[in-house]
Amino acid sequence: MALLPILRFPDVRLKKVAAPIAKIDESLRQLVSDMAETMYEAPGIGLAATQVDVHKQLVIIDISEDKSDLRVFINPRLERCDGFQEGEEGCLSVPGIYEKVERAEQVTVHYLDLEGKEQSLVAEGLLAVCLQHELDHLNGKVFVDHLSQLKQTRIKNRLAKQARVTA
Ligand code: GNR
Ligand code: NI
Predict the structure, then answer these.
(1) Which ligand has its closest atom nearest to the C-alpha of 92?
(2) Hey, which residues are catalytic here?
(3) If you measure from the C-alpha of residue 1 to the centroid of ligand 1, how many angstroms do you get, rounded to a whole number?
(4) Taking the model in full, what pTM does it have?
(5) Which residues fall within 8 angstroms of residue 112, CB to CB, at 6 or more apart?
(6) Which of 31, 68, 74, 92 could form a disulfide with 112 if both were Cys (CB 3.0 to 4.6 A apart)?
């Protein structure tokens, strides 16, 4: 088990596009376990491999109250989006910043589970938001990219100031 360092916006490595996973092996299972430990410790409800500087199509999510429902998505693809919802989002790579983002209300994703089996999931509400947020990470996007240029600049300034205070 290991805690992994999380990349912070505006680190350019957060812009990398993740590659599909070809083989589900012990090193991938170890990565999932380390990412879960990192997400729970943060604490967060989701984590994309991109955020720990691994540019593979892997996402974990647990929106339960008691860390009891870890979901693993390998090579996830968004197959369908319906409706709209708007909620406050945060990101472990953009600490302390919360902004409203518009997302689809319901999504269908296809992915592989840890056994390599094809799965599909229809999600709505917070799980749908989280999936869209994590799939964005795999495509090199953070939630801040959905905001106006003015807000993005303010967020960069706020984070830089924060970093100076904690340094
Ligand atoms: O912990 C997280 N909370 C959250 C809240 C609203 C919308 C999305 C998220 S995901 C975030 C963890 C994270 O940064 N995942 O990439
Ligand atoms: Ni995030």
Answers:
(1) 1
(2) 134
(3) 22
(4) 0.97
(5) 21, 24, 74, 75, 118, 119
(6) 74
